[in-house]
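Homework help board

Subject: predicted structure for assignment chain

Our instructor gave us this sequence and asked us to write out the predicted structure in token form, then describe one feature. I got the tokens but I'm not sure how to describe them. Can anyone check?
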Amino acid sequence: MLNPKYFINSLGLNLAASYVLKNPKKRLPKLVKGVERFASNSIQKGYLQAFYDEKNPMYQFLVNLMENTNSKTVKSFVRNFGVNTAMVGVKKSQKLMRKHHCNIPIAVLMDPTSSCNLKCKGCWAAEYKKTDNLSFDLMDRIIKEGKDLGIYWYLYSGGEPTIRRNDLLKLAKKHQDCFFLAFTNATLVDDEFAKALAEVGNFTLAISVEGFEEETDFRRGKGTYQKIMNAMRLLKKHGVMFGISSCYHSKNTKVIGSEEYIDYMIKMGASYAWLFTYIPLGKDAEMDLLCSPEQRKFMFDQVRKFRETKPILMIDFWNDGDYSRGCIAGGRSYLHINAHGDVEPCAFIHYSNVNIKDVSLLESLKSPLFKQYNQNQPFNKNYLRPCPLLDNPDKLKEMVHTSNAKSTQMLDKESVDDLTDKCQQISKDWAPVAEKIRRESDKLSVHVNKKPPRFWDENWDGTEELIEES
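My token output:
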């Protein structure tokens, strides 16, 4: 049954969204400034300011979204992400972090299935057993428990999550107060699915594309790129919000970071871009795909340039540590539940102490490995070295051994020693480059020298302390 308070709030938000939709560029700043006075802390105010600062990529993203997406999706995004996730959820989770002394994320990433219709080179999920699935009831339970913790944002990976599209649509319809995103190869997107996404409103797709046709088909198989382009056309036709998920590696970085590629993705209808770098998971990982420090620096510069010049929201998970103040995994901003049910700190860290079939979501956040993340974040005083694997491999090795976490890779059970040994040299090579950027760049976030707030610490008074120079 619909909560009366939720209905009244939804009605008000729908009216507000309808008002803004008539002239987004002019009316969005006015609306958000009006809402800002109800923000209860600096974190919430920081979220809101991004929505009316014309130079902020979040503002550009919202205006683009409102001008090119169906109104139901816009209203759902504003309500479920802008209010439930960024305002209501943050306030609730902060209180619970103080109570339970653990991380509570803003998002949960889970794998509905480990099955996939493609076999991509260097896939981070390739080492999982291919017959695992999370049942509908289990995913529903995770979402219900998540909402009790203040989590209203749910992401899917795999495998290929759209193999389970009927269940995912059903979950989106059932949980209309949440926002959903699936990382997908998009080869299963047809007109029927695109229409269903438009009708449900609170579900977006992040399409995995590796550049243009040559680069995409190199990793994903011949003909994949053309299927992706067809999927984008269908989604755009129905006004469905979608973005791209691009992994840059040694052979495609110049393309992924090119103005030509970003402009074309915007033209096709992408409103956001999630950027990842190649991680050498599994005993048969292709080490030659690792980016060089020069290539990673190139992406750092390009993304920051595009944020000032392109109407697309861009996030680079390995180069945006200055914004997030270090690693976002381990429940600090998100966690990962694989298709077997193992609760992992990150989609790229395949170690765990617990299975979601045996424990609650809150209990998993208190598990030994998650406690290690909680106690050790940030892993480096230089936030441009955020990752405990790629940038600080000895940290990951220490945490896994201390917590006695086990490998969740069913096919090869890769030890943390073997995994981190592969990243020792690249982490050493990146360190001086990252340090030079930190000391000389004028493109860093204001958060670059500030500690992340520790909401679970009862003595934390809401201030942000400066990190000492290393």
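Reply (TA_rk): Your tokens look well-formed. For the description, you could write something like this. The CA atoms of residues 143 and 175 lie 8 Å apart. That's the kind of observation they're looking for.
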